[in-house]
Design a protein that fits this description.
By secondary structure, the chain is of the alpha/beta class. The strands form two sheets. The chain has an eleven-stranded parallel β-sheet with strand order 3-2-6-7-8-9-10-11-12-1-13. A two-stranded antiparallel ribbon has the order 4-5. Helix 7 runs parallel beside helix 8. The termini are far apart.
Length: about 300
């Protein structure tokens, strides 16, 4: 066994022991069929980000699709909604243009917002409207500029995150390898979140997406991702940690998901069969979720 492989196995075992000391023997497996993804901007996005290029907006429903004759559909088939959309050139989702629709929707379902880099006035509008905000946290200036094309820096992410915390529950999301499959400030992001405070954290992993500027890139080596997650589990032994819906498929996901269970993450979205078997082997009681993991 090579030294790197041995190190990984030791980290996984230590991380699992840390998890056992702080959490019950249970794990959440989320299959979010009852959360609808809504784009407030249709397929339009001013940023054309290097990792997305508007691709993921195509799989969301638009506001007009959830209206009948101009009013909210009273026969909703979902219990919650991820409210997202393309960003403006300033890096924010313009949700304030749809407040009437959102307040009507709020009467029937819970709302998880993806908002981007809002200002203080916009943040205040979320009070009483958002049940939770999923906030993509980035702590590396070069990554922000390369991926999003934004002039803002890590200090702006800190400012918005702190502002959101004052009015609504916030679950930070950290995408590993966001900079086209290269590490770019992920450890600094954990440093910042530790300083700022957080009650839960969702990890995603960069996916090379056809039609984007990063289409030909490769995700981070899965072994490196596993080690990062194990170290995060050891660093935050009593904080709920999740593996989100954005991560590579195929063999990569099979390896990652099984390791994520073994090293003690608290929840996985759409886990592979190998991950489900691993949870059974570890004696974990599976709690099945049907909505977004941030909810």
């Amino acid at each position: 066994m090579e030294s790197g492989e041995l190190e990984t196995k030791v980290l996984i075992r230590c991380a699992w022991e840390a998890r056992k000391k702080h959490f019950a023997d249970e794990i959440w497996f989320d299959f979010p069929s009852l959360t609808e993804s809504i784009t407030l901007t249709g397929q339009a996005c001013a940023l054309n980000c290097a990792h997305c290029g508007g691709h993921y907006l195509k799989g969301m429903r638009s506001v007009s699709e959830i209206k009948i004759d101009g009013s909210l559909d009273s026969n909703l088939t979902f219990r919650s909604a991820l409210v997202s959309g393309g960003c403006t050139f300033e890096g924010k989702v313009p949700f304030e243009e749809h407040l009437e629709f959102l307040y009507n929707l709020k009467q029937s379902v819970r709302l998880n917002f993806h908002v981007g880099l809002l200002d203080g006035k916009e943040i205040s509008l979320l009070k009483g409207l958002a049940d939770v905000v999923s906030f993509d946290f980035v702590a590396d200036r070069e990554t922000i500029q390369e991926v999003y094309g934004l002039k803002q820096g890590p200090e702006d992410y800190r400012r918005v995150y702190l502002g959101l915390q004052e009015v609504v529950p916030v679950i930070p999301h950290l995408t590993l390898g966001l900079r086209g499959g290269e590490w770019g400030g992920e450890e600094r992001a954990l440093d910042a979140l530790q300083e700022l405070g957080f009650t839960g954290l969702v990890f995603n992993v960069f996916i090379p997406t056809p039609g984007t500027r990063y289409a030909l890139r490769q995700p981070l080596p899965v072994e490196e991702v596993v080690r990062f997650l194990a170290k995060a589990r050891l660093r935050f032994p009593d904080v709920p940690l999740a593996l989100g819906c954005m991560r590579p498929k195929g063999k990569y996901r099979q390896i990652l998901d099984e390791a994520a269970v073994s090293l003690g993450l608290n929840r996985l979205v759409m886990p592979t069969p190998r991950a489900r078997r691993r949870a059974e082997e570890l004696g974990l009681r599976v709690i099945k979720g049907e909505e977004c993991c941030a909810l």
